[in-house]
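Spore coat protein, Paenibacillus albidus. C-alpha cells?
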Amino acid sequence: MTSWRLNGTRNSGKEMDLTAFYAGQLLGFAKTAVRSYAIGITETATPQLRETLQKQLNAAIALHAKVFYFMLERGLYPSYDLPKLLSNDVVIANKAISM
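C-alpha cells:
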C-alpha cells in the first residue's frame, strides 16, 4: 500500500503536484456555496437572516474569484481555451485512475 505525504506526494519518491486538483475542488465548493446562499436568500422571510446570507454570499463570490484567478494565472484553468480545458480534463482523469 502506498502512503501519501501531506504535500500530496507518495512516499515512493515520485512527486505529484496536486495543486490543480485541490484548487479545482475549492473552486467547485465556492461555486456551490454561491448557489446555496442565493437559494437561501430567496427562501427566507426574515430581514436579519437575509442580510446575513447576503454577507455570506458576497464572501463566497469573493472566494470564487480569488480561486478562479489563482488557477487562471497559473494555467490551471484555461477557461477561454476549450481544447486545452478538455485536454486537461483527460490528464486529470488519467491521474485519478492511476492513483
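The two ends are 11 Å apart (CA to CA).
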